[in-house]
Amino acid sequence: MYATIRRLLNRRSPGHSSVEMAMIIPAALLLCLGLMESGNMFLSWLTMQKAAESGARMATTGQGLDDGTRLTLIQKQAAQMAAIVPGGDKAKVSVRSWTTSDTSGPGVKGDAGGACLPVEVRVDLAYVPTIPLFESLFPPQVALSGRERLVNEPWVPCP
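The structure assignment produced for this chain is given below.
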């Protein structure tokens, strides 16, 4: 019985391999392109996270506090990091802070906060698939965002 099955499996017709390849190549190509697209999306998300972290680190130093450019410096630092990925130059950077150490409320938007108080930097990007084949499979845009919340350094004595 095993010999009969083995003989049937070993029989090959001239076009058998070509048919198998014609069936496997599209699936393998789709898999490879899918891995590339998801890797690109993951890289973009990681970059948004790192951009938020970079902006939050800039916020905690208090640089630009004296001349009133602190918020601009924070946004510039985060935007510069976000611009590394394709489409990252369109990333939206938002900053908010809280007036106490309790961060359960909505916070104050557009403010980097004072010494020893929490500050949050958020970077949002509308990711557009880069491989044309996946534009029809994915939504037209995928919202990616990175967020980092830190406590400002005590550049003046804390209350």
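Interim note for the steering committee: The CA atoms of residues 44 and 85 lie 6 Å apart. The chain has a mean pLDDT of 90.
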